[in-house]
Amino acid sequence: MNAITDNRLILVCDDEPHLREMVAEYLSERGYGILEAASASDMKSLLESRTPDLIVLDINMPGTDGLTALRELRSSSEIPVIMLTAASEVIDRVIGLEMGADDYVGKPVDLRELEARIKATLRRQNLVHAEIEQKDKVRGTVVFGPCRLDLDGARLFDKGGDEIPLTAMEFSLLRVFVENRGRVLNRDQLLEQAHDKGWEPFDRSIDLRISRLRRKIENNPTKPETIRTVRGIGYVFD
């Protein structure tokens, strides 16, 4: 069995029974454990007793929609999330990324593409976790602005000592910035060093990730002092 699928549990949340069952059957046949939820409330109930490795979450659901469910999830959890969106709804994709989604797949769902994006997302997590353990990487604690980043434990704290939730990709980006303090990095360099080589939706995706990071680490995200934009080139960590 592929190492990416071995013992990995995927939660599929979609109100369309046919699509949900089709995705669940396809992934199950490829070695994933599967949980199914027909609504955001069903997903919330499942998460009280189970912790999946990744969630496939539909945006357009009756009752609590997928974006609202994602916002609620991100208040307490950084489980990777791949959103299912209508092919024409670019704004939903942008909002989803800003809220902390890891990727998205358009409907109608191409099951092979979905599987590839699941593998890529889980692989990025594996790389981040592996790098934390490498002794030749920058280690210890880095203080910047009002925050303290624990590189050994992959944890971020505010000035009061409270932990600020980070996704695996956000930690990876911060680690890249810390390792390249004072050096201007363009988008391609950031994606390459943060192991996000599989990210293809649009070339400004890194800007959305950095915008979300700034809201977590800057005193004033509209006038960033820690991660500065170098117009026409990229970003620099001061």
TrEMBL record:
Residues 139-238 bind DNA. Residues 9-122 form the Response regulatory domain. Keywords: Activator, Cytoplasm, DNA-binding, Phosphoprotein, Transcription, Transcription regulation, Two-component regulatory system. It is found in: Cytoplasm. The modification 4-aspartylphosphate is found at residue 58. Gene3D superfamilies: 3.40.50.2300, 6.10.250.690, Winged helix-like DNA-binding domain superfamily/Winged helix DNA-binding domain. One of its GO terms (biological process) is regulation of DNA-templated transcription. Transmembrane segments: none annotated. Its main location: cytoplasm. GO terms for cellular component: cytosol; protein-DNA complex. Residues 139-238 form the OmpR/PhoB-type domain. One of its GO terms (molecular function) is phosphorelay response regulator activity. This is Regulatory protein VirG. It comes from Roseibium album. The lineage of its organism: Bacteria, Pseudomonadati, Pseudomonadota, Alphaproteobacteria, Hyphomicrobiales. The gene is ompR_3.
